Amino acid sequence: MTTQAAALSHLKVLDLSRVLAGPWCTQMLADLGADVIKVERPGAGDDTRHWGPPFLKDADGNDTDQATYFTACNRNKRAITLDMARPEGQALILQMARNSDVLVENFKVGGLKQYGLDYESLKAVNPRLIYCSVTGFGQTGPYAERAGYDLMIQAMSGLMSITGHADGQPGGGPMRMGVALIDVLTGIYACSAILAAIEARHQTGQGQHIDMALLDVGMAVLANQAAGFLNTGKVPQRQGNTHPSLAPYQTFETADGQMLLAVGNDGQFARFCEAAGQAEWAQDDRFRTNTLRVKHREVLIPLMQTVTRTRSTAQWITLLEDKAVPCGPINNMAQAFADEQVQARGLVIKQPVEQVNQVQAAIENIATVASPLRLQATPPVLRRAPPSLGEHTDEVLAELGLNAAEVATLRSRGVI
């Protein structure tokens, strides 16, 4: 049987991005088969190589100086080191861009123009190039020159204002998400935009510039909360684990901890009430519909809490799982990765570290979370572990036509 090539195996991607948003985008492209060349600073590399603890462990369980953060968004890439501030480095990037389908960068607005590596300069040598710029605030507007970071955007977009417990409650106040969610979502949006630009190129033969801004994404993903504000003028407030438009849709205390109950319609509520021995609640004039339950949540939730405390979390899940009532545990990370469904889906992958530098020589494998993109005919291809700094420099430069002596000269001059 013939094995079909990976979905994006025909694409070459030049990755000039750092930290999370850009690398998350290019890892998605790499997982789908694209040949992604990650360019890093000689000697230092991507900032996230050093953002620890936690650090990768060697074979004896001791910390190395390589942070685990980098591994979250850089598998399946080839890594080279190159000083783009040097004319020789700029010439090499220009040469790679000439033969690339996509370039992703997250320098400040106009930052690459001084090196002749901005979109207009590269478009002149490769009109088919799709050039994706990721910044905090976009290429236009009064904030365009500002640096932007995920936490700043979580605050400015209003996301933190609707995350956390309400003022006056224990632990009340604005709260950031537990991961750099705006960075991750910007990477996903950027990947979608790049794929759209590739499809457009099939029609026009031309590439284009993509302007991705963390602030734009932060505002877009406010979703129903933004829709509520824009159409009513009412500013949403923090309300912990409850939902502004659904009830009961929150955490509940059980006999041995907590569970999550996510009732999304009246049928689910009626089935919960029946299972809980409180069928009359579904007929109560205060609780018959979701709108009524939201209105009377201050009455309903205490009644439910009295009942949910009578069984353990596991007992509730067992009771409700065959009744189409969404209910589940509130796992910590260890419990989540130990879950039988997570394991059955193969969501943890360990990739052997093959060609490594002196620093990583003792690391046997690196674990990452598998791609959730389950394409039946062209699934993600796991080819390479997150690379060590400059791991593929000689290999990539040889593909550009440089011989060993020329590479050695560049290395002695600190260009690579």
Automatic annotation (TrEMBL):
Q: Where are the transmembrane segments?
A: none
Q: Is the Protein biosynthesis keyword given for this protein? A: no
Task: Respond yes or no to whether keyword Protein biosynthesis is given for this record.
Answer: no
Looking up InterPro entries in the UniProt record yields: CoA-transferase_III_domain (IPR050483), CoA-Trfase_fam_III (IPR003673), CoA-Trfase_III_dom3_sf (IPR044855), CoA-Trfase_III_dom_1_sf (IPR023606)
Q: Which UniProt keywords apply?
A: Transferase
Q: Which Pfam families match?
A: CoA_transf_3
Which Gene3D superfamilies does the entry mention? Answer: Crotonobetainyl-coa:carnitine coa-transferase, domain 1, formyl-coa transferase, domain 3
Q: What PANTHER family is this protein classified in? A: SUCCINATE--HYDROXYMETHYLGLUTARATE COA-TRANSFERASE (PTHR48207)
**What name does this protein carry?**
Acetyl-CoA:oxalate CoA-transferase
Source organism? Rhodoferax lithotrophicus
